[in-house]
């Protein structure tokens, strides 16, 4: 089950979050794309800060009930900004990401979200030039098709 598109759609549907992020590239009509990098082993070297990054699902395990097939899925979304001596921007971005997922259904083809929670932020591993916070999202979904 691929969650990249539903996660991207959730993040890019929020104008407040998009206003906080940098841009990277353009779409087919020439509009700037937000600096959101999902399901990638690394962030492009020339990616502008601030950006969001997710490599892959941390866990994706069966969680069937007596009557419904289901899954427990968890993943981190990393929020990164330039280290300019103030954590306000990275904290604001992380809180916004958390708000977008906590207790909100994620539109997934072939499944319904039963429970969605977002935890954090917790510090992300970075060098001294970058500030990073992680939001852990956990989903309990029931498969419908």
Describe this protein with a few key phrases:
145 residues, alpha+beta, STM4215-like, six-stranded mixed beta sheet, two-stranded antiparallel ribbon, 3 helices, globular
Q: Brief description of this entry?
A:
This protein is of the alpha+beta class and 145 residues long. It has a single domain (4-143), classed as STM4215-like (2-Layer Sandwich).
Question: Would you write up a description of this structure?
Answer:
Helices cover 20% and strands 40% of the residues. The protein has 145 residues and is of the alpha+beta class. Strands 3, 4, 5, 6, 7 and 8 form a 6-stranded mixed sheet that branches. Strands 1-2 form a two-stranded antiparallel sheet. The mean pLDDT is 92.
């Amino acid at each position: 089950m691929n969650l990249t598109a539903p996660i991207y759609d959730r993040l890019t549907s929020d104008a407040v979050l998009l206003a906080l992020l940098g841009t990277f590239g353009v779409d087919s009509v020439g509009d700037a794309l937000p600096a959101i990098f999902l399901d990638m082993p690394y962030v492009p070297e020339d990616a502008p800060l601030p950006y969001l990054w997710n490599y892959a699902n941390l866990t994706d395990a069966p969680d069937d009930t007596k009557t419904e097939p289901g899954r427990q899925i968890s993943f981190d979304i990393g929020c990164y900004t330039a280290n300019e001596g103030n954590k306000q921007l990275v904290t604001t971005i992380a809180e916004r990401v958390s708000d977008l997922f906590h207790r909100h259904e994620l539109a997934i083809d072939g499944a319904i979200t039963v429970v969605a929670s977002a935890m954090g932020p917790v510090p992300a591993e970075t060098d001294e030039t970058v500030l990073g916070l992680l939001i852990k999202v956990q989903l309990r979904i029931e498969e419908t098709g």
